[in-house]
Amino acid sequence: GQQLNQSPQSMFIQEGEDVSMNCTSSSIFNTWLWYKQDPGEGPVLLIALYKAGELTSNGRLTAQFGITRKDSFLNISASIPSDVGIYFCAGQNFGNEKLTFGTGTRLTIIP
Amino acid sequence: DAMVIQNPRYQVTQFGKPVTLSCSQTLNHNVMYWYQQKSSQAPKLLFHYYDKDFNNEADTPDNFQSRRPNTSFCFLDIRSPGLGDAAMYLCATSSGTSGRAPYEQYFGPGTRLTVT
């Protein structure tokens, strides 16, 4: 099945740095979701976006729904050790109860 | 707190020995999903229930079956596990009702299956 392209695939940053990652698709979506997965745990929903151009924040996290409806961005400001994990984007269309997942971005914080 | 619960968190089974994984939810959601996830890859949907309606993905092996006896519980049965079935199995739910976010999915903590 289709997978969304996430970049970068992995990031190595120092604590306190800002992080940016994005997700692109060849087709449009009506909803974009961002999840974080810790090792050995299930994904946790961070932010949901419902409208093209929408910018939504959740604490230090900010996500945007691209105006073309084919992409989305997630930014993390002032990273802390608990931000380590894999971030997945997911796209969804109205009336479709299934998600299309991105390939994931692994975030590592260098001591 | 409303949540998605998976038991057990870790399951070891022998090659070819049937195994059942369970999922329960207190969210009263209409839709329940089962995913397989291997080594940091994205979760792969196996099937889902919309109420009692079962929806199988075309590439899900026949070795995988599911049951949903009521709204709260859903089971994943692996009839004859092979070594390639070792993975994290994730259960998720979504409300499925009308509104802004009928299909936001909420995941359980997962069951790590080992096949020996």
Please explain how this structure is put together.
By secondary structure, chain A is mainly beta. Chain A is built from no helices and eleven strands. In chain A, the strands form two sheets. In chain A, strands 2, 4, 5, 9, 10 and 11 form a six-stranded mixed beta sheet that branches. The model of chain A has no long low-confidence stretch (mean pLDDT 94). Chain B has strands spanning 4-7, 10-13, 19-25, 31-37, 44-50, 53-56, 64-67, 73-78, 87-94, 106-107, 111-115. Chain B contains no helices and eleven strands. The model of chain B has no long low-confidence stretch (mean pLDDT 94). In chain B, strands 2, 4, 5, 6, 9, 10 and 11 form a seven-stranded mixed beta sheet that branches. Chain B has a four-stranded antiparallel beta sheet with strand order 1-3-8-7, with no helix packed on it. Chain B is mainly β and 116 residues long. The radius of gyration of chain B is 14 Å and the shape is globular. Chain A binds chain B through residues 1, 3, 31, 33, 35, 40-45, 48, 50, 86, 88, 90, 92, 96-99, 101-104, 106, and chain B through 4, 6, 31, 40-43, 45, 48, 50, 57, 59, 88, 90, 92, 94, 96, 100-110, 112.
Amino-to-carboxy terminus distance of chain B: 36 Å
Count of helical stretches of chain B:
0
Query: What's the story with the biggest beta sheet of chain B?
Result: 7 strands, mixed
Structural class of chain B: mainly beta
Distance between the termini of chain A: 38 Å
Number of helices of chain A: 0
Range of helix content of chain B: under 10%
Low-confidence stretches of chain B: none
Strand content of chain A: over 45%
Strand count of chain A = 11
If you average the pLDDT of chain B, what whole number results? 94
Mean pLDDT, all residues of chain A: 94
Secondary-structure element order of chain B, N to C: EEEEEEEEEEE
The stretches of 5 or more residues of chain A where confidence is low (pLDDT under 50) are none
Biggest sheet features of chain A: 6 strands, mixed
Radius of gyration of chain B: 14 Å
Instruction: Please state the overall shape of chain A, judged from the principal axes of the Cα atoms.
Output: globular
* Number of distinct beta strands of chain B: 11
Q: Using the alpha-carbon principal axes, give the shape of chain B.
A: globular
Q: Bin the strand percentage of chain B.
A: over 45%
